[in-house]
Amino acid sequence: MEETSDSIQEAKDVAAALDTRVCQFEINGGSISLGPGVEPPTKAAHVELFSYGVIASVSSLTYGTWEKDNAALLIMALNFRSPDSGILRFTKAELLIDFEKQRPGDGSPVVQLCHPENNKNSAANATASGLWPPAAYSIKGRSWSKPSQEEPHQVFWEISIPRGSSADINNNSIPLCTIVSFRGSFMATVRLKATTALKFRLESFPWSKKDPMLFNGHTFKGKQFSNTKFAELEREQIEEHLPRKYPKPGNGPTPIPGTVYRIHGIPISYTTDMFFELLSKDLNIPSASIQIKSFSRNPNHEEITALVSFTTFPTKLKRTPSDRWRISVPLTELSKNEEIHASPPSSVSSPSLDLHFDTNFLGFTNLSPFSEDPFNIDIVAVHGLGGHAYGSFKQRGGPYMWLSDSLYNDLRKIARPEEFPQGIRPRILLYGHDSHIDQSPTFQSLEDLAIDLKLLLRGIRAKDSTRPLILIGHSLGGLLIKQLLIQWAIEEGSGTDKSSLEATIGLLLFGVPNRGMDITALLSIAGEQPNAEFISSLGIGSSVLEEQSKTFPTLCNSTKMRTYSFYETCLSNTATMINGKLSITGKPVVLVDKASATHGRPWEMNNQFIIPLQRTHSDLVKFDSKYSHDYEKVRGCFNEILGPGKSTSAKALPLQ
């Protein structure tokens, strides 16, 4: 079963490393240390002690060139909060960013630009940007280097209020920009100090070198510069690109942390820049607060679907019972120099674009990057009972989502020139189904859920039903996959279904209750609800699961289809109701034991196909990064399924 608290928290190691760190304050004599907290990096970072707060965040990262070298243009923002504008206000702040090469053989990164350098000089005032008002504070920036290095690799800013001035930097958002050239992947650590008029100081140690900001040369963030020859940029051009508003701590409504919105209806010809501009203007939020998780072809329509999260809450997306929103966006909101690629009805005098937002992620969602090249492998991931198509596979409390952030690139590296001369191009799909437990009005069965999956999968594979297929199932999701394969095997009819069965080359099943699971707590929650019978069918000794376990190896006996079974080795908290709300804080139990999770086809019930994970039941498909050894086990299974010499032609064992 999934933890319901995660089911509404949706949706890259590098992208995660660029997110603002969550920090904790600790009292240390007369000062306060702002160091890395035990929680992983998160969006909308907000660090505070009592009424003091500091935010240091990456607003955007664009890659380009500086002369003959690769370069990164990094925009950061500082936000401050203090109890009042008197003697308790912040009067001084310092930010130091130290760039270092990531591998010994690479060249060291070099700081080429630090902006602003001085907001008091006439040149800065002449830009009239209003970004660094000299009447409010002074800001001085410079590049620097350690004695051991010849070229500058550090950038430093000092922000201060003139002595005797009543101004403050509280509730000000201060954008800062630097350009760094590099000849290999590099990283950065950050030191931040903020001091009040009473010399009360917040100070961060450099964020751990085990958790630096990472720069790989291709994972961007935020709105991109159109001119990526950075040496040609004037400072005024950079300032025009900087957003005029940033999120301030404690102001206005905030989204549920980590919420990812799915947006349908984006014209196929739109670029990410066009989408950024359109969304920013219509939702009235800075483009830097929009974070795109994916920008992909819709599997059902000739359009693009985007997955986004926000660090500034869009008021148009206030919570609704259905978690769905329809927003009509006037196309005139695109800048006049952009070409519009939409075909509104002729009866509409002012063309508009209907964007459909949701957070339920029902049906199929494509995670693979947009490309004109056709996909040649399908991968479908199905979540478990009470889970969420995106949230179930996302890092707990963090942004990393292995299916989108790592798996696509890892599969692209597998060489199969005999079958895929252009390389493997996987279409990674999430499948969302409604199987929530509390207050459920449905009496659907396992068979019903599998029929839904079958019909929707038939629709998106109709054009190429012979494309190799790999299925990933967590808990109930694995039972749906097995029931789907059984339906494909026994039913007459759709050629697409038969072809899809023959094209299935791998199953990865995580904590699947093949012989049932502990449902004691679930039944107490369901009570007399219509879904009580369905939950009972998932219990130990279930006749439904017994029949499936007997039928599956007989009908689905292709040796080409490799099946890997993962099982949990940690106790899991059970579900309970607290004040009318579902909470995963009940007595810890083994939800799905090893015998149940690994009861599959007889020839695969051995250590080659049975894999333990030291995780709870819901954490079986939640990894922290691509360096997680558990993710590496999963990646190894894909390598075995798709690696050189593996055939995708059907081969079945003789029926017994």
Automatic annotation (TrEMBL):
Coiled-coil zones = none
Which keywords belong to this entry? Answer: Endoplasmic reticulum, Membrane, Mitochondrion
Localization, per the record, is: Endoplasmic reticulum; Membrane; Mitochondrion
Keyword NADP among record annotations = no
**InterPro entries, per database record:** AB_hydrolase_fold, SERAC1
**Which Gene3D superfamilies has this protein been placed in?**
alpha/beta hydrolase
Q: Give the highest taxon in the source lineage.
A: Eukaryota
GO CC entries: endoplasmic reticulum; membrane; mitochondrion
Tell me yes or no: is Membrane among this UniProt entry's keywords. Answer: yes
UniProt-recorded name of the protein: GPI inositol-deacylase
